[in-house]
Amino acid sequence: MATIITPKPASSTIVGSPINIPQKKYKMITENVNVYYGNFLAVKNISIKFPEKSVTALIGPSGCGKTTFLRCLNRMHDMTKNARVEGKVMIDDIDLYDKSIDPIYHRRKVGMVFQKPNPFPTMSIYDNVIAGVRLNGVRDRRILDEIVEDSLKMAYLWDEVKDDLKKPAIELSGGQQQRLCIARALAIQPEVLLMDEPASALDPIATQKIEETITELKKDYCIIIITHNMQQAVRVSDYTGFMYLGDLIEFRETKKLFTDPKNELTAKYVQGHFG
Amino acid sequence: MFKANVKNRLLVDKIMTGVVITCTLVAIIPLLWILGTLVYGGAGALSWEFFTEEPGAIGSGVPPAIGPAIQGTIIIIGLSSLIGVPIGIMSGIYLAEFGGSWFSKQIRFFTDVFMEFPSIVLGVFAFLAIVLIVGHFSIWAGAFALSLIMFPIVARATEEALKMVPYSVREAGTALGLRKWIVTLRIIIPAAKKAILTGILLAVSRISGETAPLIMTVLGSSQFFGGFDAPIDALPLRIWRFSLQPYDEARLSGWGAALVLVLIILAIHIAVRYWFMNRRKSMGMSPRLSKVGV
Amino acid sequence: MTRLIDPSLDKLSMLMSQMGDMAMECVSLAVDSYLEGKGTGGRVRELSKEITKKYFEVEDLTFDMFLKYQPVADDFRLIRSSTEISYAFSRFGRYAFDITQVRHLFGDISECKNDSLFEAAKKVKHMIREAVLSFAELDIRKAVKIQEDEAFIDRMYKERLPKLIESKNTKCALAEALLLRYLERIGDHAVFMSDAINYIVTGKHRPTQEQISSHISKN
Fold first, then answer.
1. Contacts of residue A135, Cβ cutoff 8 Å, sequence gap at least 6
2. How many domains does chain B contain in total?
3. pLDDT at A18
4. In this predicted structure, what is the pLDDT of residue B226?
């Protein structure tokens, strides 16, 4: 009686990117991004081209550098004393790390949603949504009202809160708070949306709603999402990048990466042999 | 064996609870005693004239009034706060948001030491720095001395209050492309408002009762407010002066003044608490679970 | 480290190898019954029923695994192909049974033997064996041979059928027609199987008709 042997993929070489996707424009391109924490190199030489109007997922075991890399994309490391970023992060031909531009102005092109929902604690729903807009100087009440409604509709929260926008934001449930944070990020009209495990702190139904929101948003935005949940990556993303110990191991269309990964390490990770 | 242990532990539990309650009572009883004594001793002096008129000559048989003292206390507290609170808050913001450098560590250390300075030393300093140079006692000098006492309290309270706001809120603000000072001013400080106000309240309570610095700087007076450059009366000073008089009615006034002082401080505390409770109701600060899932 | 999905994968592996062995035996017996006139109908029927039963078990198991574990990568391809391969096995059983029925219906057909049929039958036996082994070892090199054999049977099928119309012996003509038909179908399913095996190993679906023809015409 012959028994069945599990197949091994052919190569163990690193299959990185940038891959060229025909007929797609790229919204964000990183070139040779390295991140140092003191002397420790946390993110090693990553070059990725993120296509517009699509979702790219970054997966990998804990500590592989995904969050560190994501935070490069909107210069969040400026807040951290020990961190040093090298390389280029380009949105539409403008390098965010170019010394001659104003980083804060350009940071508004990239919205970010964090793992744990973090609405501003003393503000109402309304104030939270337009915080980024109003605190940047926009005063016209009609414009603000419009932005609030549009953003909440895009985040699929409008119907649930439209009757009481003055309610304090912290009274919302976890899933609602996270959608509020999404609305807040969208209100400043970014071009790229970064999401760091946006649903990991939420219950399954809230997670489902967030995934539905992402699927709708990708029609207009370039979305980059970190997730630990591989099924979520399969459901939601068009492209997936697998990172391990700071390197980008493989970057391909999601369906291909999950059905036929080229790199042995990728295959091991997605099948749960280590995590 | 296990059962025996349980009996023992329950007993120890009861004993400890008893000890804790006893200690608390021991701490509170003197407080209540003082209040009781104040009410008993000073209630007799209270009257409308007592609050509003000048003390006048002593020895006339009527308890001297403390009108100027009350006015003076309020003015001095107000002025000191005007100086001490903004500076204290600014320092607190600096320490919290821009801390971490060697310089800010020194500032923090200095602030802590400053807080423990005996207030009479600060009074002497104000005497030397202002009274001697200007040539006379004044409200300015008193306000200066008291603001020196207020400043470290407010600074530390502000710093702690700001640190209590979770880091994620700052991240959210930064991610929206807001400049640091806007994030601090418009988002972090409003979030820390309650705690900062509590710190200010503590500082105000502290200086309301300070006597020594006032001796050296405002001197005291029997008249109502006569200009910022002139001396003025204050309740602690009045209480001290009255208590040294041989006349019974003066001492009665002293008790009355002490009672009034304590009542003023109590009133401030209650008013602020009440205000916060109302704010809480209207803002709904306590998070509730929404019935409809997400 | 044992993953949650591993015991189910082991069970699938066992079922598939059992089915493979049974399919090999089944087809061999059926072809022999025709070539050598043996009465193997009973055994073949038994085996065919067993195979079908196991096919349903495999179906249940694979869908269960999709439901529970949402497998990806190698696991996913293995499970997906197992559904196709187990179907092929069940077809082998079925056609084997049909072949024995020819003899059963037609009685003694020893005079209908001819060389080309002989060769085709032998090739089919060989094909089945190759297919089962190819799956067990996940060896896709055997796929080429399987496709060649299938092409051969196809060709023979297309050549012989018209000739049968002119045949004088109705019984033999009909028997041969039926047999060729069954052999051709077995060959088809063997190729489907090798495509599925190719998918497991390479992640690519069946090569196109042009690719196969060009490969064969080269040889």
1. B176, B178, B182, B186, B187
2. 2
3. 46
4. 73
pTM for this entry: 0.79
Place of tokens 């493989």: A250
Report ipTM (2 d.p.): 0.85
Cα A191 to Cα A100, A198, B173, distances in angstroms: 21, 18, 18
ω into B246 cis (within 30 of 0): no
Specify whether B93 is located in the same domain as B182.
yes
Distance of CA C64 to the CA centre of its chain: 25
Structural domain boundaries enclosing B211? 64-290
Q: 3-state class of A192 per DSSP?
A: strand
Whether residue B39 sits in one domain with residue B68 = no
- The C-alpha angle A230, A267, A32, rounded to 5 degrees, equals 80
Report if residue B22 sits inside a domain. yes
Residues on B contacting A at a C-beta cutoff of 8 Å: 100, 165-166, 168-179, 182, 186-187, 190-191, 193, 283-285, 287-290, 292-294
Mutate to test the interface with C, among A235, A260, A269, A273 (most CBs of C within 10 A): A260
Residue B81 resides in a domain: yes
List, in sequence order, the alpha helices (H) in B116-246.
119-126, 132-134, 139-164, 167-175, 180-182, 189-208, 212-217, 235-244
Q: Report the pLDDT averaged over residues B87-93.
A: 92
How far, in Å, CA of C109 to CA of C172, rounded?
Answer: 7
Q: What is chain B's alpha carbon radius of gyration, rounded to the nearest angstrom?
A: 24
- Paired tokens of B32: 């209540």
